[in-house]
Amino acid sequence: MIKKEMIAMLLAGGQGSRLGVLTSKVAKPAVAFGGKYRIIDFPLSNCINSGIDTVGVLTQYQPLRLNAHIGIGIPWDLDRNIGGVTVLPPYEKSGNSEWYTGTANAIYQNLDYIDSYNPDYVLILSGDHIYKMDYEVMLDYHKANQADVTIATMPVPYEEASRFGIVLTDDDNKITEFEEKPEQPRGNLASMGIYIFSWKILKEALITKSEQSNCDFGKHIIPYCFEKGDRMFAYEYNGYWKDVGTLSSYWEANMELINIIPVFNLYEEFWRIYTKSDTLPPQYISEYAKVERSIVSEGTSIYGEVYNSVIGAGVTIEEGAVVRDSIIMQNTSIGKGTKINKAIIAENVNIGFDVELGIGDEAPSKLEPKIYNSGLVTIGENSVVPNHVKVGKNTAISGITVAEDYPNGILGSGEYIIKAGDVK
To answer: Could you give the angle at the alpha carbon of 344 between the alpha carbons of 341 and 345, nearest 5°?
Structure first.
């Protein structure tokens, strides 16, 4: 029988609804990041850099691009005969077929997959965070404490603590209390959604709580193990970690990559971030172009000006166009004379000429003020913006739009255009 000391289960099925039109057609872990990566590349790279060679990726919402990106795992050296990476969508079982209804339910539905490796430990990961972590160090900590469950934690500002599961610990970092998203947090040590379980403990908890609807780690499994008296420890992490679950945090995390000394360094030799790279020609920057403090991926042609921006592969920025403080994902084209200010533009978008994005004063979004804020213009993939239009801040566009969609040629701040068939 195959025996692995620890295998990883990577939860990548989420829609990421707080990213608005960016995730209307693609799962959040498959969203582009940093010019050439996708969000899921970070936990996958952490696995291979930590010596974990068996990873189950649980997909559900819009899995097509994620599946194509992961393939058989070659970029991460996860194309193994034994182990490697396995994509685990929900499947029909005898008697019933059901979607994954919660993080723990997704793991429960794949007990046979885990059992086939007979692991001592199971590492549970999220597919939508940007960070570098050596999971082997966390496993050593788990063993040293003879823990049943180890939760990776990090201190967060008190005002943000109610968004997280919060743990209280004694002097030995043993967890004495766990509260999921408390309204009045008594501590600020937050769960990062990264867990190491001893497999026997996890299996018993999943089977016991499997009847629970929407069975979830933070709401059901962790409290169950705690009440049962399992040995639970907090592993405190102090490196860079970003939940890119909102448009503003996603924009900020990309912008942090272009600092002179980036907070999060993509260029370290000893901890590489691996990704599936297409074979593309080199980038081209014309004699009239100007590029300052930006990441520009391969296959991109720049004839205009780019400042403080992250430009994906295969993008064309035509003469006279000026792009500032923006994220432009792959295979998008920006027409002549177009001015773009603080925008997130998804893949395969066509922006016409003499367009202005990000004009005027801010106004709250009429679509989803909690999603479209921070003054950003957000454009979903495969969208078209016609020539000569002006677009304000906190706006959202999705679909093939035409001049008639813009009254007097303007989409004011806080307004949106979502074409039929496109989801907000």
So the answer is: 105
Of 325, 324, 303, 302, the C-alpha closest to 313 is 302
pLDDT band at 424 (very low <50, low <70, confident <90, very high): very low
pLDDT, tens digit, for every residue of 29-59?
Answer: 888 899 888 888 899 989 988 999 888 888 8
Is residue 291 within 8 Å of residue 285, measured between CB atoms? yes
Two tokens, residue 231? 């040995």
* 355 and 338 Cβ atoms separated by less than 8 Å: yes
Rounded Cα–Cα distance for residues 110 and 124 (Å): 13
pTM metric for this prediction: 0.88
The strand ranges marked E within 108-147 are: 121-126, 129-131
DSSP string of 390-419, one letter each residue:
EEESSEEEESB--GGGSGGGEE-TT-EEE-
Beta bridge partners of 32: 38
Integer Cα distance of 146 and 139 in angstroms: 10
Tens digit of pLDDT for each residue in 137-194?
999 999 999 999 999 999 988 888 888 889 999 999 999 998 888 888 899 999 998 9
The DSSP H or E segment spanning 225 is helix 222-228
Count Cβ atoms below 10 Å from residue 63 Cβ, excluding itself.
Answer: 21
Q: Tell me the residue type at 291.
A: V
Q: One-letter amino acid identity for 262?
A: P
Question: Which value, in Å, is the radius of gyration of the alpha carbons in the chain?
Answer: 23
Q: Determine how β-strand 54-58 pairs with β-strand 37-38.
A: unpaired
User: What token pair was written down for 65?
Assistant: 């691009």
CB 80 within 8 A of CB 53: yes
Asked if 328 and 312 count as a contact pair (C-beta separation under 8 A), the reply is: yes
How high is the pLDDT of residue 61? 66
Q: Rounded CA gap, 388 and 326, in Å? A: 20
Residue 79 tokens read as 């194309």
Map tokens 């990873």 to a residue: 55
Q: How far is CA 362 from the centre of its chain?
A: 27
